[in-house]
Write a structure and sequence with these properties.
Elements: E1 2-4, E2 9-15, H1 16-25, E3 45-52, E4 57-59, E5 71-74, H2 76-87
Antiparallel strand pairs: 1-2, 2-3, 3-4, 3-5
């Protein structure tokens, strides 16, 4: 799911269970153990902050929310909190 706000920012969220299922279905052996990294006991999500819109977007690394980290691992209420925080960021200056 990707959601964009009027300030020029957005959030992309994917359930970690979906990623686990994708890794489990590949033809390649899981030599890095990636599928086992996604065996959460509660539903967790991976999220990134974006800039752009539904037609073109990119991951943002330099907002006050992510401080050079691109990925968040969150539960459902934390996803809601992140969405509200991104919505409240100052409008992105487009150069």
């Amino acid at each position: 799911m990707r959601t964009f706000f009027e300030n020029g920012y957005g959030v992309s969220v994917i359930p970690r269970s979906l990623l686990r299922d994708i890794f489990a279905q590949t033809d390649q052996p899981d030599s890095w153990g990636l599928a086992s990294l996604y065996n959460d006991t509660v539903e967790m999500f991976e999220a990134v902050i974006l800039t752009g819109d539904h037609h073109e977007s990119q991951i943002v690394y330099d907002t006050p929310l992510n401080h050079q980290d691109s990925e968040f691992i969150l539960n459902s209420s934390e996803v809601d909190e992140l969405m509200e925080a991104v919505r409240a960021l100052p409008k992105q200056e487009i150069s």
